[in-house]
């Protein structure tokens, strides 16, 4: 298994874990809110984490068929994964 695939699979697992943790945060905010609603960005961070987890798995699978060398594959994987990470961090920051 190439390093790029391993990085993508690790990212998928971390996004999945973050999705579950933000789900707890979302549920807690729903239960304590008078309107029984979570803040918009908490909800977005929760859903985006799950979406990005799946996208990371797709990236890992596509990299298995990549004709490029390992360094190029790592770069190809890193670009969207870093973008995903930064967006989720931004959503969580706005949710706080």
Largest sheet: none
Sheet-strand content, in percent, reads under 5%
Strand tally, please? 0
Query: What's the gyration radius in Å?
Result: 16 Å
**From the helix content, strand content and strand pairing, which structural class follows?**
mainly alpha
How would you characterize this protein structure?
The protein is an all-alpha fold. The protein has one domain (3-95). Helices cover 83% and strands 0% of the residues. The chain is built from three helices and no strands. It has helices spanning 3-32, 40-63, 70-95. Helix 1 (3-32) packs antiparallel against helix 2 (40-63), helix 1 (3-32) packs parallel to helix 3 (70-95) and helix 2 (40-63) packs antiparallel against helix 3 (70-95). The chain is elongated and about 55 Å long. The mean pLDDT is 95.
